Amino acid sequence: MANRKQINEYFTNDTIHTYYALDKSMMKAHTADRNDDAEATARSLLENADLPLLLRARACMILGCGESPDFIDMAKESMRVAELGLGAGELGKNLVEDCNKVLEEAQVAADEKAKEEKGDDEDEEEEEGMELVWRAGEHEDDEKNGQAEGDGKGQAKSSKESMQ
Fold first, then answer.
1. Distance between CA 154 and CA 164 in Å, rounded?
2. 101: closest CA among 71, 64, 59, 66?
3. SS (H, E, C) the chain
4. CB neighbourhood size of 70 (10 A)
5. What CA–CA distance (Å, rounded) separates 156 from 139?
6. Is the pLDDT of residue 160 over 90?
7. pLDDT tens track for 31-63
8. What residues have CB less than 8 Å from 141, skipping those under 6 apart?
9. Looking at domain 8-112, which CATH architecture does it have?
């Protein structure tokens, strides 16, 4: 079995070591289901222009696993960054595989969310499809005289019922 380098061995200065410590904290928070902490750390890391691509991809992956409105975009960005700069080495291949998995899961979640929203919209459309065909007091004189029976006045029905 080959002796694998730790991620922090790739980093060479104090700023990069600080980024690595934040990355490590972010990953621990994510693993411990403290996703708010993990996402906050990821967003903080992404504010740095000199953030190494490896850490940028991992921060995007964390946000791609989240529930924020931009989760699908962040999952796509993680894939783009991983493919962009990490080459064909073992680390790059593993990262691309992980980013791809996050992207696939994010896409499934986005599709489910869209389906739920569409279902909510259909419920609203069904409610909007109700049509008022009688208003209280509008034909009181007709009803008192018995003229409302059989002519459809005095009945409330949905537009669906009226189409049948």
1. 18
2. 64
3. CCCCCCHHHHCCCHHHHHHHHHHHHHHHHHHCCCHHHHHHHHHHHHCCCCCCHHHHHHHHHHHHCCCCCCHHHHHHHHHHHHHHHCCCCHHHHHHHHHHHHHHHHHHHHHHHHHHHHHHHHHHHHHHHCEECCCCCCCCHHHHHCCCCCCCCCCCCEEHHHHHC
4. 12
5. 13
6. no
7. 999 989 999 999 999 999 989 888 999 999 999
8. none
9. Alpha Horseshoe (1.25)
Dig out the tokens for 9 from the structure. Answer: 């061995």
pLDDT in tens, 119-149: 765 555 555 554 444 445 454 555 455 544 4
How many angstroms separate the CA atoms of 104 and 75, rounded? Answer: 9
Which CA distances in Å does 81 have to 30, 36, 54, 92, 109?
A: 20, 23, 8, 10, 21
